[in-house]
């Protein structure tokens, strides 16, 4: 019986999900802001660029890497309107997220979130895309997922069934998970590289 | 990764397959509900979401808004049927009865489309709602019905409609009315504007059965229903049921609460015969009652 289970776990849906979870945990960090508490972040590039939520980082920021090592982080920029922030750390040999395309998303497709809900490091939840669009008139377009999040998931990755990051989890509203789409993150990071000014 | 990816694609395709037949129903203040284009020009929704009989509009998935008229409603199954002039858009594909099993993945679709997912949590036999509606299967999905989802379809992983979702039928419990029941109610509402429900014209009240009375019956519970009112010339009066008779069983089902009797009677077709086993002045008797139609109450 046990042999049967483990065989299935390697190949079937369970195997896919555990592989994906492992991969996403490697690119998800804990973000400790003062006094905002614990959130999550995504290792966006191998050079130590981390994307998280603006509401997670206010004062001094420390990042705990997947292996458990804590490193100080520098706040590069905040965009409170879209609830995004970029951090830089000095670290080498890091994994980096594979970035998906948030423009090609379909209602009903599977999504997976990894983060630190209520401080539980690396917790995974699975669900599907509920809708794509603004929650209020003229608001920014968000990925709305039928997926359970908790405080501490903020800033963590929302990934598709291939494990590609398609959004940054930012809010819980009416039981739905709301994520800032990858396209907005890319635009935010683009503005960052064109402007040299950094936030102290 | 291919297994997970194909499931993901399958679920998205299931939503796309039904989405064209899912409409917004504007028939109550503030919160629009969801409806399904069941067959050309016929929309099914949840009765509790249709507060007004007039000024109802529906919005198609493509954004076009059209006026709708109420063809009929059946509060006992929480279903309402609307008629629209438009027939040039997709109708929903309906799943085969019996294809669903506990544990199957199902999706609830709200107007938009917006979706939630889960599994078939429980699947039971026929049951009667508190208002006497006969429902073919107890179908309970484990998923979230978000605001406005009532009246929308529950679909399987192939995009076939297996039920209509409602949180308004059983104490706010999220349930689906199985497609076979929906089909039957829609046929009746379209043909006659209402669902006729059995009626015998009596008032009943629970009464404790003495031990010796109970022993005289094969299927008695501790409580019977005493006849406290008989409608003049109603079905029960014509069958000879008298004030003070104690109804112990109806067609072999022990009736220990008026709601139980109402469910049994309400589910019987008009014109059929129902056998009441009664205790009259301490003696066992049987009364055969021809079920009549419940007079429609004005809303």
What value does the average pLDDT of chain A take?
Answer: 90
Strand content of chain A: 35-45%
- The Rg value of chain A, from CA coordinates, equals 16 Å
Distance between the termini of chain B: 56 Å
What's the structural blueprint in terms of helices and strands?
The complex is a heterodimer of chains A (200) and B (299).
Chain A: H1 2-11, H2 13-26, E1 28-33, E2 37-43, E3 49-52, E4 61-64, E5 70-79, E6 84-88, E7 110-115, E8 123-133, E9 142-146, E10 157-159, E11 165-173, E12 176-181, H3 182-194
Antiparallel strand pairs in A: 1-2, 1-4, 2-3, 3-6, 4-5, 5-6, 7-8, 7-10, 8-9, 9-12, 10-11, 11-12
Helix pairs in contact in A: 1-2
Chain B: H1 2-19, E1 22-26, E2 33-39, E3 42-46, E4 56-59, E5 65-74, E6 79-84, E7 105-110, E8 114-124, E9 127-128, E10 134-135, E11 138-142, E12 153-156, E13 161-170, E14 173-178, H2 179-192, E15 198-199, E16 202-208, H3 211-215, E17 223-230, H4 235-239, E18 246-250, E19 253-254, H5 258-266, E20 273-280, E21 283-290, E22 292-293
Antiparallel strand pairs in B: 1-2, 1-4, 2-3, 3-6, 4-5, 5-6, 7-8, 7-12, 8-11, 9-10, 12-13, 13-14, 15-22, 16-17, 17-18, 18-19, 18-20, 20-21
